[in-house]
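Margin note from the TA: students keep mixing up input and output lines. Inputs are the sequences; the output is the structure of the whole complex. Example:
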Amino acid sequence: MSTPTSPPQAERPRGGLSAWAQATPFTLVFVLFLVLPLVLVAIVSFWRATDYELIPAFTAQNYIEVFNGCGSTSELCVTLKTYLSTLKFCFLVWLITLVIGFVVAYFLAFHVRSVGAQTLLFILCTIPFWTSNVIRMISWVPLLGRNGVVNQALIGANVIETPIEWLLFSDFSVVLAFVHLYTMFMIVPIFNSMMRIDRALLEAARDNGATGWQTVWNVIVPLCRTGIVIGSIFVITIVMGDFVTIGVMGGQQIASVGKIIQVQTSYLQFPMAAANAVILLIVTLMMIWGLTKLVDIRKEL
Amino acid sequence: MQEGKRPGSFYALAAVFGAFVLFLYGPMFTIFVLSFQGPEGGLTFPMRGVSFHWFAKLWEGMGVVDIAAAFRRSVALGIVVMLCTVLLSLGAGLAFRKKFKGSGLLFYTSVASLIMPSIVVSLGIGLQFRLIDTLLKSGLETIGLGSWLESYGTAMGLYTSALGAHLTWTLPFGLLIMLAVFNRFNPAYEEAADDLGATPWQSFRHVVLPLIAPSLVGVGMFGFTLSWDEIARTSQAIGDVNTLPLELQGLTSTVTTPAIYALGTVTTVVSFAVMGGTLLLIRLLKRQPVRA
């Protein structure tokens, strides 16, 4: 995630492979599988397509179609609706993961005293990251379904009479799954920032009569800003482009920007999908740019 | 934090932390238990007996989906991704220790890869390979080798487009780990080796490598496990066959028996086995005395 890295130390004169030779394979992968594909997406978004072939052209038709009907004031067009819905998920997930991530990181960083216990609990929080996302989504089904554990318990306790329907395949379950899957992306950078806070500062705050809350709000939060921003970038970009979680947990009923691109690709409408991808990329980059204005990422890395 | 009595807030925070861990692991544990449903059992509690029935069903295959083949593909791809991630990240990590032109750009490119919406990367790679196919086919036709087209399917595949897609996801993690490792790396050992007349290769092989071996194992684990579960970047870049997570994603809407939980249990066990193996290997490597 956000490993602290300073610029590499000055070079000692020594033999061996040149730096470029060592970095070339790594660089090639990104040129071939990241830079080139992105350039192609940008190019193809101006092409035309028929049912069976791509036609190199230069037309803004795809972009015009994306925003088709967005001029009218009476009703929102599909694209804007989808973006609003995706942004809503983004905001909710960001807020919840931030609060939970901060609290968990705070507990780990300032309340767990032994390094061994700290490491153990930290690993406990990160293990699920290395297991299957889809499985972690499906694992909510027996809990939230019509006859799931939650409904059975509530009916058993006479809180409700009929099962709650909105627990699964709803906005609620999508947000829940996002929080379940991605809180880790907040915990790690925030924890990393907290571990670098000089403990003397906290004592100084206390000696000057700050309450616990005041210390958290005026000392810890500002010093964790970088971690918070890095975590936020991760969570926001993941949710903005997501189509898997929204698909599985929304019962394939909820639209998202990523899902539009995925569906258009499956119908081989590549230029349209590419135009949507370019717009998604621009929106996401603007959000990241806004976040990085708040903090100097370079200092952290 | 001063030693002594714990503040009241500690207990409140500990309770929140405990609830969070329960939230993380509870659902996973639920499907682990439910995958041992009896033959009569359904997707939710109560348990109707305890059996390996659904694992057996899974073994037989689920309808048209060949789970075993997808499993093998994912393992094979995971191993290749793991090896590539270790080797390429190590090379880049070593390069970043020296000053080289464009190092900043390379670093930011790899970070950009990490936060790029996966669907966009996947779409781009898919497009790229379709265009390669088109060009190859028209090229073959122009030079009169149209007959070769019969046997030519697509350049897309497990070890071409899918491998590339996975590497855009695993390499940035690998690089960040290597940068962190070399940041805390004491160059005195190498200098000593140099002074004693070691060649660059010898000092790398006998000094640097043993010291960073545990971290390389960690990078390898990242490579395998991230590849093992990857869906979003693979989705448009895989071609005709599917990896296990992609099959799984398709099954979520069609399979309504505990067999899908059994599959979940199997993939999770693989993930855990890889993590456990990694920890063991790291311990072994750390215990070994470094022989000069």
